[in-house]
Amino acid sequence: MYHSISTNQFEDQITITKKKFIEQLNYYKEKGYNTINFTDIENGTIPPKALLITFDDGFLDNYQEAFPLLKEYGFKAVCFLVLGKLGKNMDWAGKYVVKERKLMTIQQIKSCGPHIQFAYHTYKHDNYEQLSLEEIKKDLELCTSVVQENNLSLFPALSYTYGGYYRKKGKEQKAFFSLLKKYGINYAFRVGNRIALFPFRNSMTINRMDIRGYEDMNVFKKRIKWGRIKLM
Q1: H or E segment and range at residue 62
Q2: Residue 77: beta bridge partners?
Q3: How far from 50 is each of 20, 34, 171, 207, 217, CA to CA, in Å?
Q4: Most buried of 19, 50, 56, 144 (most Cβ within 10 A)?
Q5: Residue 186, CA distances (Å) to 1, 5, 21, 135, 208 in order
Q6: pLDDT by residue (tens digit) across 130-172?
Q7: What's the pTM value of the predicted model, to 2 decimals?
């Protein structure tokens, strides 16, 4: 799970330098990882050492920096979009918010071709864990409107903002998952920091590994092999 790529050496938990990102792409290539997207998952065509590279939010630097590199390496990736903020600056709450950081425009999204597949990351980056089912329904309706009005091709998958979803098992969680499925969401991603095995145990709580910009390559390699939990 990536977010933003910097070209000015700035890095933090959600921002990785372009230089370090290239190092990681080289590592994926050297170790024989096979990048996949949701179409591969849906078709069940999962190769050995399958790797799903994801980006949350849809920042402009994903288009300017990540997209050309993915093309160069012949890699696939998935980008989860904050649909109510396309072409605007990020403005949601959080420790790592950089107000001048802009998101991709609709035209840029449409020009990414087969290398980046797009999916949902809520309408305005609200935490679903903190919303009522009625509020989540409204959010999904707004997302659907943006997709339809702009003729966007999005895969029916969702990345939970802040990793937030109805975690407690029971009626509310069942109703939450049912609501997502009603709006066509077939897969939903948390953070989890564990390696996700296919077929997924629960397609609505798929684990991902967050790649933190300030961690060095040795830590990165261990994360990719074992997940974050093994290092505790």
Answers
A1: none
A2: 116
A3: 21, 5, 34, 14, 20
A4: 56
A5: 19, 28, 29, 20, 16
A6: 999 999 999 999 999 999 999 999 999 999 999 999 999 999 9
A7: 0.95
